[in-house]
Amino acid sequence: MNFLGWVDHDPRQEDAILRALGAAKGHDARDELGLGAIRDSFADLFFPGISTIQQRVRYFLFVQWCCEIAASQGEADRVLARLRESEETLIHSLEHLGEGHGVIGILSKEDLKRTPSEIYWNGLLVLGMRRTRGNRRRWARQAAASRSSGRTDSLGEDAAKTSVDLGFDPERPQAPKGFPGVELDFALNVAEADFLRSRLVNGCVDPAGRGHEYNLFGTFARYRHKTDAQALWDHPRISGLKAEARDMVMLGAAFARIMYGAAILYNVCVARLMPSNESTERLRSAHATAFIGRAEALNPADVTLLDRRIPDLQALGAITRHGINDRAIAFVRRWTQLCGEPLKLLHDPTASLLVSNREVYLKTSSGTSRIRSAKQRERWRGESGSQQMDFRWFVARSCLNDLATPADA
User: For the range 16-19, what are the long-range contacts, defined as Cβ-Cβ under 8 Å and sequence gap of 24 or more?
Assistant: First the structure.
């Protein structure tokens, strides 16, 4: 059984772990070549507070409201139990929407393993909605202590009413009457949309505010229409970004497009090691064709841009607190140099060796290297990690589309 734990005394360390867990979930997390720290650094700067498993922006409010209800209970264990009860009720209040609308737990119901509060917990901190650092148990203890202190203070001579700190922003919009036990959906009213828009616009992964200039919500959220843009750099308001943000987006786009080729070549390398038969021949041909198409589409300007700005990548990790090590940078640099002649790379042993050695370095110690292990290749489904990085764009797009059309606008 795999698990992750920590000593419950360092809330900042807990926040870092929670952020990493959120970033490590979802389809965008498949990382055969160890580029996830760079990918997540771009994503955290562009769309702070958002992770790959979040789909609907109103959940930020749902979770805060559930936490406030739970905080009215007794000791910390009872607070957490009530939070769980409220979140289970929330599932039933949303299930009329059906599958495919982003309802968390619509199939698992009371057997849900990851609740909305767990999924949105770090984002609530990044957006300034949660003010208590650390995990949910730490929050429950502090809320219970604050409530107990408030009751004690009220017994003083002046019997003055004290304010109980629930650990969340008290200026949030009011919950619907009867929440969470009433029929709900994801449509925002104007007050909710304005509140969430302001939080997203001001969000920053760095508590000191470094990197806030790369937050794209400020410009994108002013576009009050839904968008079906397939990449963040195709957003209708991309030209409205300030120069530093636009330059960072162009760097991210170049990185995504160039490293996409390395991911496809990795699949080619694994396919070449499979026993030869009709099925694997088709697989090799499919990956090879995909690589050639990618190589033909590669813009030399992207190669020039990334090659010039590779030193900037580690600076991103310093802002977002993702460890981007020298080996990852060296791999990106060497692959980018080889992409000066991309059409030669499919049959260039240097390129195949570079990609294969990178995977072997990352996975041999855990026994999961497909390049080294025939057993791992037997478990391979024919494709892995060969989607172009989107920097959580599809989640951010869903949030922006929810914000674009308030129900009572």
Answer: 16/321, 18/121, 18/122, 18/135, 19/44, 19/122, 19/126, 19/205, 19/321
> Which range marks the domain in which residue 150 is found?
59-154+163-185
Q: How far is CA 344 from CA 192, 210, 259, 293, in A?
A: 53, 41, 16, 12
Length of the chain: 409
Q: Specify if 133 maps to a domain.
A: yes
pTM given for the model: 0.88
Confirm whether 307 is domain-assigned: yes
Q: Looking at 127-242, list the stretches that DSSP marks H as alpha helix, in order from N- to C-terminal side.
A: 136-153, 190-202, 217-220
Same domain flag for 248 and 357 = yes
Task: Report pLDDT digits (tens) over 44-66.
Answer: 999 999 999 998 999 999 999 99
> What does the pLDDT look like over 115-171, one tens digit per residue?
999 999 999 999 999 999 999 999 999 999 987 775 534 333 333 334 578 899 999
Q: Which tokens belong to 248? A: 């960072």
Same structural domain for residues 80 and 146? yes
Q: In the structure encoding, which two tokens stand for residue 127, read together? A: 């957006």
How many domains does the chain divide into? 2
Run of H or E including 214? none
Radius of gyration of the chain (CA): 24
Alpha-carbon distances, residue 251 vs 98, 162, 190, 332, 341 (angstroms): 39, 51, 35, 13, 20
Please tell me whether residues 73 and 181 are part of one structural domain: yes
The C-alpha atoms of residue 197 and residue 57 are separated, in whole angstroms, by 10
Amino acid at position 293, single letter: G
Q: Please say whether the beta carbons of 129 and 199 come within 8 A.
A: yes
In a domain, 113, yes or no: yes
Beta-carbon contacts of 370 under 8 Å, excluding residues fewer than 6 positions away, are: 270, 273, 359, 363, 376, 377, 380, 384
Is 232 domain-assigned? no
